[in-house]
Amino acid sequence: MDNLNQITVDFETSHLIFPTLIAIILAVLGLAIVITRRREIAAAPGYWRSVFARMDKVRFFGTIALTVLYFSLMVPVGDFWPNTGLGFLICSIPYLLLTGLLFLHERSLRKVAPVLVTALVAPVLVWWLFTDLFFLTLP
């Protein structure tokens, strides 16, 4: 009882508290959705089959592949220049460019130019904000 005014933080495991808490809350909410919407969920495979048949598979799977590649390469590229955020910057420019090109229906110079400018300016702006203004380290 003499330790009521003292808090001990275990830094080895303290970062796991909120992800665990959020995972438990999401699991409870997911279970509530399954219980209350069980009839709609049981009828869902036919719906998803028709959605999958109508979807643009190149854009969908291309986006997933580019996103996985983006997050997979960010840290290894950033390890060449540690604590500079260049991994984020170098990986974000081609990711934004390729994702933008993937979603363009017409790839004329007039349509590609804004995508190219956005792919160059947006990551540089975010990189500058995080490193110089917020003093946060990016991968």
From TrEMBL:
Coiled coil: none annotated. InterPro entries: DUF1468 (IPR009936). Keywords: Membrane, Transmembrane, Transmembrane helix. Residues 17-139 form the DUF1468 domain. It comes from the Bacteria. The chain crosses the membrane at residues 16-37, 58-78, 84-105, 112-130. The keyword Isomerase does not apply. This is Tripartite tricarboxylate transporter TctB family protein. It comes from Roseibium salinum.
